Structures are given as structure tokens and as C-alpha cells.
Amino acid sequence: MKTKIALLLLSASSLMWSCQDFLEEPSDVSGQTEAVAFSTIETAEQVLAAPYSSLPWGWPCLNGNGPWSQGILIYFAPISTASDEADTALEGGYNFVHPQYHEGLLTAGTINPYREDKWDYDWFAIRNAWYFYDKVDMVNDGTPQSYINQRKAEALGLVAQRYYEMFKRYGGLPWIDHYITMGESIDMSRMSITRTVDSICSLLDRAIAMPELPERNAVNEFGRVNKVALRMLKARVLLWSASPLFNPEDNQSYYPSFNKQELIKHETYDKNRWQEAADACLEAINAAHGAGYALYTKYGDPVKDYKAAVTEFPDIDANGTAKGNPEIIWGTRPADSYASETYQSGSRVTIWSTLKQLRGTVGTYLIPLQNMVDKYELRNGSDQPADYWQTTSDPYNNLDRRFNATIYHHGYKLGKTVGPFTLDMRMEPAGDQYPAGAQNFTGYYLAKFFDDDYIAGAGNYPQAFWPYMRLSDLYLMYAEALNEVDYESNSGEILHYVNLVRNRAGQPNLEDKPGFQATQAYVRECIRKERIVELCYEDQIYFDYKRWKVGDKYIGGNMYGMRITGDMENPTFSKFLYETRVWSSKWYLFPLYQTDVLTTNGVLAQNPGW
Predict the structure, then answer these.
(1) For position 108, what pLDDT does the model report?
(2) Greatest CA span in the chain, whole angstroms?
(3) 319: pLDDT confidence band, cut at 50, 70 and 90?
(4) What is the pLDDT of residue 75?
(5) Sequence-separated (6 or more) residues with CB below 8 Å from residue 92
(6) Count of CB atoms situated within 10 Å of the CB of 412
(7) CA proximity to 532, closest of 369, 418, 311, 389
(8) pLDDT confidence of residue 395
């Protein structure tokens, strides 16, 4: 059914403020003629900057009300604070996570910046990407066609990337395949899950086939679309397509009474979708290896290497020094300056070392929960026994080393060059690190993404990029898909790729894990736990819980903290119920914006339960 262009697609104006190179602030193209906007490649690339400028970014920044501070988050809080990974330290009227998500008060009428899903931002980005793609050939300033074609391939990839992000949040989508002009009649009805997947993959194939797009970006173009990233993106799309949310083995959706089932699941279950996902993962892995991507192992230390994999730049730092991080396939960034104070101020600061107090500041607001800590294995590969916290004298330093790289905890020795001190997270008596005021306290603070010297006051601002895609994720995607195809016939390949990730972290091979069972069901749970531990706080796990249809267990339910009492050197640990969060099956997919549903007179169908 045709309808006049909906309100969500009308604006072509910028979503970004000033920054540099391909992130340069786009001019307000709604106030320019096409002849002006595409008179030179420089002005044309300002149009392409719009979809680049609002790519996923996990941390807010103190620079106004643009998309980096509010547009990609729930106000200032990352989506991990809505699952059993974490809570937020936002207080009072700034805490929109608790009422909207923990208490389930989100509605289809809720608008920015109080929703994590950004329906309107996605459509703005898609429209600008198509505007660039459809019009950039007007440029007649001597720019080589090969350069223009590379940027066109990037534009296609950005459209596909934004469709993927909407797909995992909303299910079946309307499809826009060109630049929409004011007043144009378009079909805003939603496609089926099957057609949505096929359309995104076809668009990715189209971009990947363009010879001008590089396999891997040059040093000065870190953050741009490349072929390896698009192959991994296709693997992500197909993994979602095969997973229980959209491809339930019993052919029952999460909302059986909904009268448009094709919008929320494939019309029939097909196990072969897992093979398609596995094939796409292997193609991406081979391309990644061919382009020089590898797990970060430079230090030979599990804690340092794991932390460096998400903090060190793949190419060069602000001083032009090679950092050599080969793991980041696609790192998004809001600025060209790799260690920009402007973009980092407030976004990764957790400790005011002069007071020796560990706090969530305006940019962090992420407080790990005990639920997440409980997921870490012991260093011999064993799961934590039921009485672990009551019977172990040094419980934290016996956990998977990724724990020490990810979470600041009681007894953590912070500061290696100046002012070293040991974190005292006791509640009774109150330790040095007990947070002032009413900030949430679970016994933990986030360490991932932070350099200890910087936190202790000895270092500079951390580098500014977000690990949107990295190789360890791709390895675990491949293992998961192969296991769902068949564990027995694929066991060697599955264990190889899981063990690459585990061994980098200092963990034993999966098959050497005490109690290991060579079954699909057992290995499935092991791979899922490996993903949670490896990718926590990277805006992945909340969506994995939905993809696996386990939201009732890990998004809703009881959340726990750790009460630490007694002597500093010989503390007593006891879990306590932090809060209970609600869950409803309607939450597996977000609601479309009600304004746009109404604008299209119901042609744009709403998701069930909303």
C-alpha cells in the first residue's frame, strides 16, 4: 500500500556537530540545492558524514545534546544497564532506565532521548546515505571515479548497517531503496522477517562486490566501512535470522496471538538457516585473516591483552605511534583526534583519585551486578560452586582473568606509577571507595575500557573509539552457528574457535573444563556463557538475551549485589537482593514510534503488545 512519505523521513538535516575528516559536520542539506551539495566531493562527503556520525557508540560525552550524548543511549546510560550485566548510577530525574526498562513503563509514545532504540535517527541516516549514493555522481571537480565508487559502496554499507540495527530491534521493516523526495508516495508497509533478511543481505552483497571498497581501511581512514566489516555484518544478520527469536524450532513466536506473525518470525522454521550463518561467518573469518586481523596477543598477558583489545587503536595513536591492535574490524568514533579531551571528558572517568573514591560520573553510570560476576569461571575452567563466596578466602583473584580486566572489585590494586592504592569496597564499616550520596552501590565498578594509570591520575584521556566489531565476536558467532547445525560433526572446528578466545584469556580448552559434556546442549550453554564473558558491556549481551529468547531469565528477574563487611584483609562476602525487574514477552521487540504508526494510518503495523 502506498502512502505519502511519513514524518520520520522528511528531514535531511545533520544529526551531528563539528568534528573532522569523514566525520565533518554535514551542512544542512535541506537548505541547499543538489547542485550546491554535490558541487565538490568535499561538500558531498558532508552528506555522507550524517550516517557515519551516529553509528553505535557506547559512551556519552559532555558536548551538548547531539547523538553521541543522548541519541544512542537511554539518556546517558548504555543498554547493558537494562540487563543483568549492570545498573546505572544516574540519579533522580536523570534515571530513565529504571522506570522505562526495569519497571517496564516504556511505551510506543516515548520519545528521545529516553529510548535506547532510535527509530528516527535510523531513518535520517538511511535517507542521507541514499541521498549521497544517488547524487554523488553529479560531482564534477575532477575526483577520480574510483574514489567516488568507494564512497558509494560505503553508503550502501551504512544503509545495510542501519537496517541491521533496526531489524534486531523491530523485526520486519519497511524497505527504502533510494533517496526519497518530499511528497513522494512510497510503500511504508513492513516486509516479512524473511524478506527483510534477504533485502539486507542483498544490499551487503552489492556493496561487497564493488571493487573499489577496500578489504581493510588505510591508517587514516580507521572507522570507515570496509569489506571485512560488511562480511561480518552479513554474518550477524544471518545469525539473528537463524536464532530462536526469529527462527523458533517449535515454529511458535514469542507472541502467538499477533495476527501478523511474518513480521516477528520466519513463517516456517528452517534449520538450514544456521548453516547459512555459519557459512557467512567462515567467509568473514577467512577475509579477516587475509586482511591481517587477529586476536590481540601483543603483551602475552591475559588481562592486558583483553583490555587492550577494546582500548588500543588498531592503527596509530594521537602522536602517530603505531599501536598494532589487529582485533578491531570496525571501530566507531566521534572524533578524528584519537585521544581527544573534548570527546572524552566525562565519558570514561570513574575515579576521582585525589579523594580515593570510586564513583560513577556523568559519563560512566554503569555499575556491574553480581549476576554478571557469577558468570565467570574459575581459572581451572570450573563453574563457581554454590558456596564459593562463603568458603573462598580470595574469591576475586581465582576467577577468569577477564574478570580482573573488566570489573573493579574489593582488594583491586589500582595505580602502577603514582599514588597506588587498594580498593576498599566494604559497606560495613564503610570503605574508602564507598560512593558518596545516593549513587547505586553493588560492590563493583567498571574497569573495562579504562587504563589503570589514567584512572589513578597518571595517564592521559583514553583513546576514543567503540569496539563495534571485533574478531573474537566473529569466532564465537561461527562456533555458535556450527553447534546449532550439528555438534558431533563440527566439534573440532567449534572447539578450535572457542578455544582461541578462551586461551587468549588464559582459560583452559573447553574440552578440558571439569564436567565437560560432548553434547550440543552443553556446548550451547558454554558458548553462550563465553559470549557473555568476552563481550559484556559492549552493547551485545542485552540483544543476545533477546535473540536466544531468554529475556525472562536475564533481563527481568532478581538482580544481586555483593555486601562486603569485616576486616579489609579478611572480608566477609554475602550476596544481597539489589532489585527485581519486570519482564513481558512484548519486550522481545521494541515498539515502533507511535507517531509514525498513526501518520501512516496503520499501514506501518505496530509490534505486538505495544
Answers:
(1) 96
(2) 74
(3) low
(4) 74
(5) none
(6) 21
(7) 369
(8) 96
Task: Assess contact for 133 and 152: CB atoms under 8 A.
Answer: yes
pLDDT band at residue 333 using 50, 70 and 90 as cut-offs: confident
- What CA–CA distances, in Å, run from 325 to 291, 309, 339, 470? 13, 7, 16, 10
What is the C-alpha to C-alpha distance for residues 376 and 64, in angstroms, rounded to an integer?
Answer: 38
What number of other Cβ atoms are within 10 A of residue 68's Cβ? 28
Cell numbers standing for residue 486: 550439528
How many beta carbons lie within 10 A of that of residue 315, not counting itself? 21
| Residue burial 336-363, b: 16+ Cβ < 10 Å; e: rest | bbbbbeebbbbbbbbbebeebebbbbbb
- Helix (DSSP H) and strand (DSSP E) numbers for the chain: 20, 14
Residue 248's Cα: distance from chain center in Å? 24
Query: How many CB atoms lie under 10 A from the CB of residue 516?
Result: 16
Mean per-residue pLDDT, 527-531: 98
pLDDT at 63: 44
Which amino acid type is present at position 64?
Answer: G
Residue type, 133: Y
Going by their DSSP bridges, the two strands 571-581 and 445-446 should be labelled as unpaired
Higher pLDDT, 460 or 323: 323
Contacts of 10 by beta carbon, 8 Å cutoff, 6+ apart = 182
Work out whether the CA dihedral 493, 497, 500, 505 comes out positive or negative.
negative
pLDDT digits (tens, 9 = 90+) for 559-593: 999 999 999 999 999 999 999 999 999 999 999 99
Distance CA 139, CA 143 (A): 8
The H-assigned helical ranges of 136-268 are 145-170, 193-208, 227-242
- Segment 602-610 shows an average pLDDT of 95
Residue 156 DSSP one-character state? H
pLDDT value, residue 421? 75
Cβ atoms of 500 and 520 within 8 Å: the answer is no
Beta bridge partners of 322: 316
In this structure, how many other beta carbons lie within 10 angstroms of the beta carbon of residue 496? Answer: 14
Measured at the alpha carbon of residue 46, what is the angle toward residues 43 and 50, in degrees to the nearest 5?
160
State how far the alpha carbon of 511 is from the alpha carbons of 381, 398, 498, 508, 594, in Å: 10, 20, 10, 8, 49
DSSP for 41-109, please give it.
Answer: HHHHHHHHHHHHHTS--SS--SS-SSIIIIITSBTTB-GGGGTTTEE----GGG--HIIIIIS----TT
Q: Contact, 108 vs 100, CB < 8 A? A: no
Single out the residue of 591, 2, 609 nearest to residue 259, CA to CA: 609
Distances (CA, A) of 397 to 166, 233, 360, 400, 494: 40, 36, 24, 8, 29
Mean pLDDT, to the nearest integer, of 506-529? 98
Question: Is the pLDDT reported for residue 409 higher than 70?
Answer: yes
Q: Is the dihedral of CA 416, 419, 421, 424 positive or negative?
A: negative
220 three-class SS: helix
Does residue 533 contact residue 376 with C-beta atoms inside 8 Å?
yes
Q: Output the average pLDDT for the chain.
A: 86
Question: Are 90 and 75 a contacting pair, CB within 8 Å?
Answer: yes
